[in-house]
Design brief:
The protein is α/β, with parallel strands linked by helices. Helix content is 32%, strand content 27%. It is built from 13 helices and 18 strands. The chain has a 9-stranded mixed sheet with strand order 3-2-1-4-7-9-8-10-11. Strands 13-14-12-15-18-17-16 form a 7-stranded mixed sheet. It has a two-stranded antiparallel ribbon with strand order 5-6.
Length: 392
C-alpha cells in the first residue's frame, strides 16, 4: 500500500471515496464479482491510486470482521498487517493479564496495524508502538485515532531501542520472509536471538502455536490461547509475568478459562467409559490433556492419543464432550454395513492417531440414510477403534 495514498484516504475527500467504495462493494451491491465495474465507476471521480487504496480498505475491512467484529468498519489495515494481527478477544485477554500485574506502560515492538496497542490502551496502559514499516505505523496511528484512544506510534528499529523506561515490552515477531511463512525462529523479524534477550526482563512475546516446548527458555511461561475452539497463538511470558511453566487458555462466548501444569496431577490410560472428551487445541498444544482427564475423573484412551474417557458426564470449557453410544467395526466394509443398518446418511467423522482422511472415507462409505451421526476413529490401547457418539 502506498503511504501517500493511505494518508490521502484519511482526508475528507478520502473518507467520502472510502464510504462510496464500501457501499458499492457490499454484499447487497453485488460484492467482489462487480469489482471491475466498481473500479471503472470510481475512476471517473478519483485518481486510480486513491481508488486502489479505497477498494483495498473496503475489502480488508470485510475480511477483518472475523478478528475485530463490528469495529472492523472503523479501522484500517494492510494485507500482511491484518494476517498477523491478534484477534480482539485474545488481545483483550493479554491486556487483562498485564493490568492484573499492575502494568502501567508498554512498548509494542513491531506493532503492525495496532491491534494489541488498541487493547492495551483500552485497558488504561500507557502504550507506545514502533515498527519498521512507515505504512503500518500510519495505519496503527489512524486506528488509535479512529477509536479515540491515546498512544504514540513511530518508525523505529525495535532492536535498537532503550526499553528501560517501560514496565513491559511486547513483541510479535514477523514470521514471513520473501518466500512466505517461516517456522525458523532465526528468520523471524526481530530474530529469536533478540527475543531471547527480551525474555530476560518483564516481557510478552507472541509466537506461532507450533512453537516447540524445548525452545521456551527456562523460567518463561508458555501460554497457548484458543478463540472459540481455534488455537491462535502461543504467548511467552517472562519475569514477574510468568506464573506457570505451561498454560492453556480458552476464550469463548462465556468468557475465558485457563489451566496450568499446576492443575495436572497426571492421569492413567484406562478402558473406554461411557463418555469421551475431545480436549481443546490449546490444551493439546500445552501438553495438558492429562489435566483435563483428571478434571473429568477419567483417563486417556491411549498413551499417545489426545482423547479422554470417563464414566462421568462433565461440562468443561477445556474439552468437548460426547456420550458413547456403541462401538462399531473398525474395518471399512463392516463399518459401512453397520452404519447403513442404522440408517445413517449424514456422518461427521472425527479422528486422532489413525491414518484416515475423513472426506475420502465418507465418499467410500456411500451412505444414503435419513439419520445423522458422529463417528470417532482412534486408537485404544494401540488398536484401531470406531465409536458411535453423540455430543452433549
Amino acid at each position: 500500500m502506498d503511504l501517500d495514498a493511505f494518508r490521502w484516504l484519511l482526508t475528507d475527500d478520502g473518507q467520502a471515496l472510502l464510504a462510496t467504495a464500501t457501499e458499492l462493494t457490499s454484499d447487497t451491491a453485488g460484492g467482489p464479482a462487480d469489482e471491475l465495474a466498481v473500479q471503472t465507476r470510481l475512476r471517473r471521480i478519483a485518481d486510480p491510486a486513491h481508488v486502489a487504496a479505497a477498494l483495498t480498505q473496503a475489502q480488508l475491512r470485510r475480511r477483518a470482521e472475523a478478528k475485530f467484529g463490528d469495529r472492523a468498519a472503523a479501522l484500517y489495515f494492510t494485507p500482511d498487517g491484518l494476517e498477523q494481527a491478534t484477534r480482539a478477544p485474545v488481545a483483550r485477554h493479554r491486556a487483562g493479564r498485564l493490568t492484573a500485574f499492575g502494568t502501567q506502560s508498554l512498548v509494542d515492538l513491531g506493532c503492525g496495524i495496532g491491534g494489541d496497542l488498541i487493547a492495551a490502551a483500552e485497558a488504561g496502559i500507557v502504550s507506545v508502538g514502533v515498527d519498521l514499516d512507515p505504512v503500518r505505523v500510519a495505519v496503527a496511528e489512524a486506528n488509535l485515532a479512529a477509536l479515540g484512544l491515546p498512544g504514540a506510534v513511530t518508525v523505529a528499529d525495535a532492536t535498537r531501542l532503550d526499553l528501560a523506561p517501560f514496565d513491559v515490552a511486547f513483541a510479535d515477531p514477523a514470521r514471513r520472509t520473501g518466500t512466505g511463512r517461516t517456522w525458523r525462529p532465526e528468520a523471524w523479524t526481530p530474530p529469536w536471538e533478540f527475543v531471547e534477550g527480551l525474555l530476560g526482563r518483564d516481557a510478552c512475546v507472541k509466537a506461532a502455536p507450533g512453537i516447540p516446548h524445548d525452545l521456551v527458555p527456562d523460567g518463561v511461561e508458555a501460554e497457548w490461547v484458543s478463540d472459540h475452539g481455534e488455537v491462535k497463538e502461543a504467548a511467552l511470558w517472562s519475569g514477574r509475568l510468568a506464573t506457570a511453566r505451561r498454560r492453556a487458555t480458552v476464550v469463548g462466548d462465556g468468557g475465558l478459562a485457563t489451566l496450568t501444569d499446576d492443575d495436572d496431577p497426571g492421569a492413567p490410560v484406562r478402558p473406554i467409559g461411557e463418555f469421551l472428551y475431545e480436549p481443546d487445541g490449546a490444551v493439546i498444544r500445552a501438553g495438558l490433556v492429562t489435566a483435563v482427564a483428571a478434571g473429568v475423573h477419567g483417563g486417556l484412551v491411549d498413551e499417545h492419543i489426545a482423547y479422554v474417557t470417563s464414566d462421568d458426564s462433565f461440562r468443561t470449557p477445556f474439552a468437548r464432550g460426547y456420550r458413547i453410544l456403541e462401538p462399531l467395526p473398525y474395518r471399512e466394509k463392516q463399518l459401512r454395513a453397520a452404519l447403513r443398518e442404522r440408517g445413517v446418511g449424514r456422518l461427521t467423522i472425527k479422528k486422532r492417531g489413525v491414518d484416515v482422511v475423513p472426506e475420502q472415507l465418507r465418499r467410500r462409505l456411500d451412505l444414503d440414510g435419513d439419520s445423522e451421526a458422529t463417528l470417532v476413529l482412534t486408537r485404544v490401547d494401540g488398536h484401531g477403534t470406531a465409536l458411535l457418539v453423540e455430543p452433549f
